[in-house]
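Subject: two folds for Thursday's group meeting

Dear M.,

Sorry for the delay on this. The cluster queue was jammed most of the week, so I only got both jobs back this morning. I'm pasting them in the order they finished. Each block is the input sequence followed by the predicted structure tokens. Could you check whether the formatting survives your parser before we put anything on slides? The first protein is the one we discussed after the seminar.
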Amino acid sequence: MATVELRFSAQPEHVRTARLVAAAVARRAGVDEAVLDEVRLAVGEACSRAVGLHRSHGITAPVRVALTEEEKIFSIEVGDGVTAAGSEAGGEPSGTREGAPSGDPYDSDDEDEMGLAVISGLVDDVEVTSGDDGGVIRMSWPTTPAVATP
């Protein structure tokens, strides 16, 4: 179950908010302070990628971000609405990644691959999946338990 769940319209200006919330929740969950910049950058990259996919495929559904605190791990899932077949989850087909409108900054598979490469460089535990509910990037970091003071 998600500790915090965000849903936001596919507008680039909302990515900053997602980064800030992710860093705050990660800090509270016990993610090492030295890693928080990586969390911010990875979430920003994943959210920017999802925003770009939504915009290039004409998807009106919100971008989903689930931040989950478990016993020794903190995970973040960023979901887009582009299904494996290139259509909106639960909707009619709206084109494939190859068929994105020209002029859109996210229309290139190279941009998509570059974003995933950046995320992979920032996060040791990352998984990218795509299915009937859309694509999901799942990232996780170890946490340290809070030390009780006597």
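Second protein, same layout:
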Amino acid sequence: MLRRLLRTALALALVCAVLVGLLWALQRRLIYLPAGGPVPSAADVLPGGRDVELTTSDGLRLGAWFFPGPDADAPAVLFAAGNGGNREHRVPLARALAAEGLAVLLFDYRGYGGNPGSPDADGLALDVRAARDWLVTEAAVPQERLVYLGESLGCAVVTELALEHPPAGLVLRSPFVDLAAVGAEHYPFLPVGLLLRDRFPVAEQVARVQVPTTVLLGTADTIVPPEQSRRVAAAAGRLHALVEVPDAGHNDLVLLDGPELVRAVTGLAPR
């Protein structure tokens, strides 16, 4: 009997070790869910749109779309997407922001939208810096006329950028406290905090951001629990507003390009 129990325990330990090893090796495939390319031309999705190329400091060339504002002084929105899809899925948001007189840059991370490379936290940080550099140098948008808008995982990307290059305002849609915290919500039976390679510490970093920050959440969000977004708002170094959209889920249209999100951006855009 004892021998049988030992064999069973050993078998279970072996299965757990294999499972943990697989999760360690394959975790980024679970975190990053890119849609590939090709994507259409910017002019085909929104009149006046321009196809542009971003060059990262590690030598990657990333595809992006720039939608100019109505004049050269228009504020610009730098948008960092969540972990799924590509920039084609954010066209309705660009259209809604453009209708408010804002310039918009939609870009795809490495590995998304036909771009080269594989996504990870360090790579996404380089990608968003290339996007910001392009807006400031090529589009000649002053840093003080930029608004950063992050969506879900993209909240971490723009929050980290805001520490180095403070914008006029920061909008975080459905932010999580950090990736381990949201991972633990979905995988409570796993030591997520020990396994994760990419941390994305949003709450820790937003506490050091000293620009007006608006947090927007959906009260029915089952992917990023609303309480996590509220904790990010509570941690913000300079909270401008906390906007709660009743009964909205993580991927509901109202959170993707709805009026509450658009107002959150225009409310921080310099005029």
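Two things I noticed about the second structure. Residues 9 and 215 are 47 Å apart (CA to CA). The mean pLDDT is 93.

Cheers,
T.
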